[in-house]
Amino acid sequence: MVTATEPSREASSINVLLQDSVSSTATHRKNAVRLKKLLLKPSTSVPAALESLWNAMRLVLLMKKGHPQGDRFVKFFETFMQEGDDSDEKMAEIRSKVAEFCINKLYPGLIARDRVVRFRVCQILSVLLGHLSELDDDVYVPMRNNLLQRTVDRDTNVRIQALNAVSLLQGSGDEEEEQLIREQLLQVLSSDPSGDVRRTALIKIDLDTTTLSHLLERIRDQETTVRKALLQRLAEDPDHLAMLTHAQWDTLLASGLFDRDESVKADCENLFANVWLQGQEQRLFEFLSQIDVMDPDSSAPAALTTFFKVHKDNWLKSYQESLWDNLSVERAFFLRHCITFCTENDLENELDTIRPSLTAVVEMIKKHFKAVSQDTDDESRAEQEFIISQLLVIAEHHDFSDEVGRRNLQNCFCELISMSDLERDCFLTIIKTIQHLSIDETDFTRLIIELLYQIYDQIDEKYEDSQDSSQEPGSSISDLDGKRRTYTFEDYVIIHKCLDIIRCMMECLQSGFPQTESMNGLLKNFVLPGIQSGNFALWEAGLYCLGLFCIFDESLAQENVALFIHAYNTVSKDIKLAAMKILFDLILRHGHTKFLTSDVLQVFQDAMESEDPDVLTLAVEGVAKLMMLKCTKSPELLQALVVLYFHPLTASMNRLKQCLSYFFPVFSHSNHDNQKIVSEAFFPILKTMIPVHQGNKDMMIPPLQIAHRMIEWTDVRNLAKQTPDVNRELHADIALDVITNGCYEEEVEPSALKVYCQILGKFYIPSDISKVKLNRLRVEVAKLKEIVKDSVALNALKKFTAHLIEIEVAGASATERDNDAEDAHEMMDIVRDLRSDKDAGRAASSGEESDD
User: Fold this and answer.
1) Nearest to 181 by CA among 199, 159, 163, 196
2) In this predicted model, what pLDDT tens digit does every residue of 187-233 receive, in sequence order?
3) What is the pLDDT of residue 176?
């Protein structure tokens, strides 16, 4: 009797064990322990056992991702390599032997032609490298180099597993080695096209001061999973947050707290309020002191709101009454947002605790206003003005129940308006508060007008017959008495201030100007002289004021449309923008029938050809609104919008791109009439963009993709509401338009003809298309085949022809079935008639018999 040798028994035991492991994951733990005991037995031949393991592993290398047995084997192998404590020296030695043996066998597979093999090799190496004690340079160096090459493999799954393996090579202690691996991981992180790959690189790369700045750039990654992974990675270890500078925090919060995805926003709020500030509120003031809270684009307002929202029950602990003493920029900013948050969330008890009396607020405003008037340093003056702006907002949110405080506040604000040179935003806050303090809008406008004339009196008081040396030669405007007067620079500042106050007052009104005489007085004495002054700053301010008056008075608007058109034709960009905004507002306010004239349309068309990005963007936004509201149905305007959307010169205009990315699908899918407008502009747009692409191939998407976008916009199946009057043959009409107007041109370029042919198969041709139109399509395509030489275009035409034949055959079959059904109905009618005749004959016969 022949008995099995010991190595064969070991191989048999290992095969049974592995067979059991690839059948179910439930036995992995038990089988890992069994394999460990088997390898630790003194009688076991480790080399033979490893050969058996390798034989099984070779079969796994050919199993695709997702293969149940292959995935279970890798999972079991990972469980086995993690079996035992680190203090178990024997098991550590066994793991090292297994890792070294398998790596020597596996690493040549990194350059295999089969991507499945490369995937499995990288996957198993990512399990083994974490348990390797040492490896010969003859094996390590080529393995490392091949792994680095696999991080840019053409297969996404291979790149992910390669990153998992390469990340285990970090921390070797060799500076050159570390730099090589770090640079490769950072390269993949910043440039890989796959979001899953970038996410893996972000998770696996070691965090330090060098890599942190690169990781933070991923807060603007286009993939939500990558942005979430960054925030979760930072939250896992609070020690990482200590490496962030306040500028980096500002950048991180500015993007994370305003993220379009709510889950990313929630992770950022948790990172800032719970992980970093938990129990250490003093960090909040350190953060506010290190970033520029005076910058309107700062993340500080959102950060404070997040802090208050997350710690709604205990954020009051960070408040101290002493904060009101010696207000700094950070303290004023913090207190203002405390009060704003309490007001918006109806936290009356907290508001009573924080908010000082109205009289105390007035005294603080006066104190800092005095400091502004005495301070000569620009930076210090700006800080004091910022503190005043925060106090003004605090005063605006007061309840005004204190009568003495109300009077003091009103007198203080009137003094501020008359004597100070604050920013327009501060004036707006002051005027809003005065409106709250007024009885009604008549009382409010009366008080503001009185203040305006008091301010203008400052010019009369210091006016002298001799001209100041700093004045502009020949710059003069009419005074309140109608006389021409030459003004100094300081006088212009006062007049500009008056116009700013008028603008703020008009923006606060809800029901129009209550007194016609007063409005005419403001127009005559302030607004029109400012427009006529020749000074661009006064012109712009006066134009905005006139536009606000026109919003409330349609007849005044009609009288001044020509003035706004003239203002657009000036050389000043700011005045152009102001004029366009006013024209758009007048159309939306009073209707397009009276204000969207040919002259106004010409202004918009000129603006859409402007080289200035701001003018162009404003024109695009305005025209898009007009088309959405059906104020215009001009195919030419729509064509200009589409060309601008795809044109390479607008590639960097993000605001314009964002506007049109939203506009086109909503405009097209909301109404079938809009789809008809797009269909009219389809071929002219395509004809325009093909030669543009020839000279800018690297800066814009190809014409084929442009056509696909427009086909998607004009697809009647995408309409939000299907109605009986929908022309389901719209794509067939566009296809005929492309063939007849584009393909038969004498000077048509081969590249253009190729595009025209390729897009035909993308159109939706309904099964119930009329026979006339279907036959015409077939005839036109047959003619087209005779002139097309390009093989790709010919194949596209053949496919389109086959599709048309399928529709025709299906229609014929349906018609035949309908005819058969009609014949059957006719036969049934004949049978019924015969039966009724037969029954009538029987009845007659029975009647004759009864008579007999």
Assistant:
1) 163
2) 999 999 999 999 999 999 998 888 999 999 999 998 999 999 999 99
3) 86
Count CB-CB contacts under 10 A for residue 410. Answer: 17
Residue 656: partners with Cβ closer than 8 Å, 6 or more residues away: 613, 616, 617, 620, 621, 644, 645, 650
Query: What is the 8-class DSSP label of residue 311?
Result: T
Residue 312 has pLDDT above 80, yes or no: no
Could you read off the pLDDT of 345-371 as tens digits, one per residue?
Answer: 888 888 888 888 888 888 998 888 888
Q: Which two tokens stand for residue 417?
A: 């308006």
CA nearest neighbour of 274 among 301, 300, 312, 218: 312
Q: How far apart are CA 371 and CA 364, in angstroms?
A: 11
**CA distance from start to end of the chain:** 115
Phi-psi bin for 113: left (phi > 0), alpha (psi -120 to 50), beta? alpha
Q: Which are the contacts of 820, defined by CB distance < 8 A and separation ≥ 6?
A: none
Q: Which strand (E) or helix (H) includes residue 484? A: strand 484-486
Distance CA 268, CA 271 (A): 5
Q: What does the alpha-carbon distance between residue 840 and residue 835 come to, in Å, rounded to a whole number? A: 8
**DSSP code string of 564-583:** HHHHHTSS-HHHHHHHHHHH
pLDDT of residue 599: 92
628 close to 663: Cβ distance less than 8 angstroms: yes
CA 366 to chain CA centroid, Å, is 44
Element (H, E) at 721: none
Burial class (CB in 10 A: 0-12, 13-18, 19+), 394: buried
Overall pTM surpassing 0.85 (yes/no): no
Please identify which residue in the block is written with the tokens 């009369």: 460
Using CA of residue 677, residue 681, residue 683, residue 686, what is the dihedral sign?
negative
- Number of neighbouring beta carbons within 10 Å of residue 609: 11
